[in-house]
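User: tokens in, sequence out, please.
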């Protein structure tokens, strides 16, 4: 029988599945969830706890899976949905994470990129029109320190920060979100363990970290479907306004959208990869990163994270 992989990050919500879902154990496909059941409760938690990224379905049932995804996502974005905001946020977060993973694995796929771009626009609307959306998204724990999950968190912080900065242009917000989602493409396939404080990295690890923004941008620069703003964000997301970033760019030489992502990324790096408590992260950002990011960015991010 032929199987195709599906992403665990897309399996959220209480909707019954109309396909059988399998896990691979020692090259053998084992039925995990039957058609007609749902991934509610512990069934999904067990998969996440095991850090399982992919499951499998029969290729003949792929259309059923696509329909399941579409219903889940459409329902999550519907403000009249019967689901509460927390459940909707979980579904949307999982969808955004899946989009990141798809582009990371297939950057040459125009359809995958455009789907992620279209979804980024919808995500902006969800974040900016639902008062508790940011809090619900940021409260989804990134237990396995997943880079794609980190991208969703940084995009959420970036949108919330841009909103406080008074940015309303829908195109800019869409590209900001997409760039933030994809900002760490340079880590794709890298041997670097990102789950460590920057000041504790070995010389070789620090060298890999220093290079990942430019490496990531270089890998997609020839892809004509990648927007210039998105490439700029990938290339510049570790830069600082005082020129102490990997490329030494000063504020005047940076893409303004990349500066927003840089500030948001610095905050979530502390939380996700350096295990700083959320209620302490903004204070640490202020103390350790003052002069590296616009003061207004740091102040606004403190307000955003305080509300989580």
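Assistant: Sequence out:
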């Amino acid at each position: 029988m032929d199987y195709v992989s599906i992403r665990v990050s897309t399996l959220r919500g209480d909707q019954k599945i109309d396909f059988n879902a399998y896990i691979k154990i020692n090259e053998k496909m084992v039925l995990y969830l039957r058609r007609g059941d749902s991934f509610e409760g512990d069934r999904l938690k067990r998969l996440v706890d095991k850090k399982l990224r992919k499951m499998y379905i029969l290729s003949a049932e792929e259309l059923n899976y696509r329909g399941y995804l579409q219903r889940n996502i459409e329902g999550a974005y519907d403000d009249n949905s019967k689901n509460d905001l927390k459940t909707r946020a979980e579904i949307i977060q999982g969808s955004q994470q899946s989009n990141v993973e798809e582009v990371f694995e297939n950057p040459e796929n125009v359809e995958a990129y455009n789907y992620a771009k279209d979804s980024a626009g919808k995500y902006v609307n969800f974040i900016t029109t639902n008062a508790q959306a940011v809090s619900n998204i940021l409260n989804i724990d990134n237990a396995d320190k997943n880079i794609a999950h980190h991208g969703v968190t940084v995009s959420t912080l970036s949108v919330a920060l841009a909103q406080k900065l008074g940015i309303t242009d829908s195109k800019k917000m869409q590209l900001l979100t997409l760039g933030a989602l994809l900002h760490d493409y340079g880590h794709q396939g890298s041997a670097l363990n990102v789950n460590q404080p920057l000041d504790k990295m070995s010389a070789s690890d620090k060298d890999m970290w220093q290079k990942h923004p430019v490496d990531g941008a270089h890998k997609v620069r020839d892809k004509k479907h990648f927007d210039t703003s998105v490439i700029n964000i990938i290339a510049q997301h570790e830069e600082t306004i005082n020129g102490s970033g990997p490329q030494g760019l000063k504020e005047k030489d940076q893409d303004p959208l990349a500066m927003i992502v840089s500030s948001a990324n610095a905050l979530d790096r502390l939380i996700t990869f350096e295990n700083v408590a959320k209620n302490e992260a903004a204070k640490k950002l202020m103390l350790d990163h003052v002069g590296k990011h616009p003061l207004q960015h740091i102040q606004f991010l403190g307000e955003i994270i305080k509300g989580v």
